[in-house]
Design goal:
Blueprint: E1 7-10, E2 16-17, E3 33-36, E4 68-69, H1 74-80, E5 84-85, E6 89-94, H2 100-113, E7 118-122, H3 127-137, E8 145-148, H4 152-161, E9 166-170, H5 187-204, E10 207-213, H6 226-229, E11 232-237, E12 244-252, E13 260-266, E14 269-272, H7 276-280, E15 291-298, E16 301-313, E17 321-324, H8 328-342, E18 349-355, H9 367-379, E19 387-389, E20 392-393, E21 399-400, H10 405-414, E22 419-423, E23 440-444, H11 447-455
Bound molecules: thymidine-5'-diphosphate and magnesium ion.
């Protein structure tokens, strides 16, 4: 039998090389390469059995949507695309301490209370610790099966015999297969453990949740490879110091991605936030220059957010641009457009931009709100407190259409806003958004028109 050749695996991206180096050529990370000895394949050495014939079928045929089991936590069910799908695998990632275990214990308990068999395997915490959390969450009566275990061979043998609708593994990085000669948490271990669990989920038909930790740059620690093996990847995120948490689907074979669930961390666990706009705008003060409300969209859900801009004089020196919750490159572009196309002098100022509440906005539709906040800050005149803004800004300063204007307008009207500043409706083609009752539409064709309003004397 051939001697196993040592191989080296990047613990960050999973790339395999034949020799060690300080830096991974594939992902550029330092000190992530570790030696992992491959294990012999199971089965008789030498002759492999011949493969079986694969059947091909036509595209047309029965394609029933998968049946779903609702966890009863509406925010979670929405992100999942309507509930848990049997035999599907969900990876829940997030920073340590963000609330993954809390969320999964709440969901597992809720499902167990509805009479379904649920198993929760904790590899990080002892039985006592999980029980303490359950007491805090008020779910001690839920009939779920709890185990503290890390040995995957034992866990797999148990799952083979135990009926379950949902199995939670908290976390996949603590799981350990004794047939593999590397430490828990390494790519090889995590991948092999996940593979075994996924195989069980598919053959036994239970929904499987793998909890995983995330590194500071947002990648699932080690097992980036895992993202390809699972059906859905959900990230649980939030700013430290803020009470609320966002559950975001970044991959979902059974539903839409970019859907979010909003929760609030309380002293009795995670509470669902049914109306996030009200939460995000709760601390807004009217009559402050540099603040504008953005009518945004998170997945299918409209969310109103406050964008804050602050300008501070910086004569000489190179001005600072600091952004929280938005894209720094996009801010530079907007500043250039404001300066070049609208005649707003900003290059002598430090610019600070913040999306209040800690949510991260990725939509270009926020351009108009950011521009309004900047123009308001530059003129030292507040935006009208009853106005929301949305629209994309192009390089020549034109304000462009964005998706789902109707949904944004409806949310603004629901929260009592009076005016919406939005892109001018297209002359031909394109459907004009209809104004909900009580909301006035204020169409902006060019960014300079918006900037000019802040320059007008009051009452003009
Ligand atoms: P946890 O679910 O353990 O995080 P993770 O599994 O992602 O590492 O959450 C831990 C934090 O949540 C901890 O700082 C305490 C806080 N917490 C509450 O504020 N209220 C609660 O009811 C619970 C259970 C936790
Ligand atoms: Mg945890």
């Amino acid at each position: 039998m051939a001697k196993p050749v040592p191989r080296f695996v990047c613990q960050s991206c999973g790339a395999v090389t034949s020799k060690w180096s300080g830096r991974c050529d594939a992902c550029g990370e330092w000190n992530t390469i570790a030696e992992e000895t491959p294990t012999a394949r199971p089965g008789p050495a030498g002759k492999a059995a011949p493969g079986r014939k694969v059947d091909f079928v036509p595209l047309a045929g029965s394609a029933a949507p998968p049946p779903r089991t609702e966890t009863g936590i509406a925010e979670l069910d929405r992100v999942l695309g309507g509930g848990l799908v049997a035999a599907s695998v969900i990876l829940v990632g997030g920073d340590p301490g963000i609330g993954k275990s809390t969320l999964m214990l709440q969901a597992a308990a809720r499902l167990a209370a509805s009479g379904r068999p649920v198993l929760y395997v904790s590899g990080e915490e002892s039985i006592e610790q999980v029980r303490l959390r359950a007491r805090r969450l008020g779910v001690t009566e839920a009939p779920l099966g709890l185990a503290a275990a890390v040995n995957l061979r034992d866990i797999a043998a148990t799952l083979e015999q135990t009926p379950a609708a949902l199995v939670v593994i908290d976390s996949i990085q603590t799981m350990w297969l004794d047939t593999i000669d590397s430490a828990p948490g390494t790519v090889t271990q995590v991948r092999a453990s996940a593979f075994e669990l996924i195989r069980l989920a598919k053959s036994r038909g239970f929904a499987l949740v793998l909890v995983g930790h995330v590194t500071k740059d947002g990648a699932l620690a080690g097992p980036r490879v895992l993202e390809h093996m699972v059906d859905a990847v959900l990230y649980f995120e939030g700013e430290r110091g803020h009470q609320f948490r966002i559950l975001r689907a970044v991959k979902n074979r059974f539903g839409a991605t970019d859907e979010i669930g909003v929760f609030e961390m309380t002293d009795r666990g995670l509470a669902e936030v049914a109306n996030p706009s009200a939460l995000f705008l709760a601390e807004r003060r009217g009559n402050v220059a540099g603040s504008a409300v953005f009518a945004g969209l998170e997945g299918t859900r409209p969310v109103l957010l406050e964008v804050q801009a602050l300008l501070a004089p910086n004569p000489g020196g190179s001005p600072r641009r600091q952004v929280i919750g938005w894209d720094g490159g996009r801010l530079s572009m907007l500043l250039a457009v404001l300066e070049t196309r609208c005649g707003l002098r900003l290059s002598g100022s430090d610019v600070y931009l913040n999306v209040a509440g800690g949510l991260r906005v990725n939509e270009p539709a926020a351009d108009l709100a950011v521009a309004a906040a900047l123009a308001s800050a530059a003129a030292d005149r507040p935006t009208h407190p009853g106005t929301v803004y949305f629209g994309e800004v192009g390089l020549s300063g034109e304000v462009r259409q964005v998706a789902q204007a109707d949904a944004r307008l409806k949310e603004a009207a629901k929260l009592g806003f009076e005016t919406a500043c939005l892109p001018r409706r297209l002359a031909r083609g394109g459907r004009a958004p209809t104004a909900p009752e009580g909301l006035r539409l204020d169409e902006i064709g060019h960014l300079a028109d918006l900037v000019a309003r802040f320059a007008e004397p009051p009452g003009a």
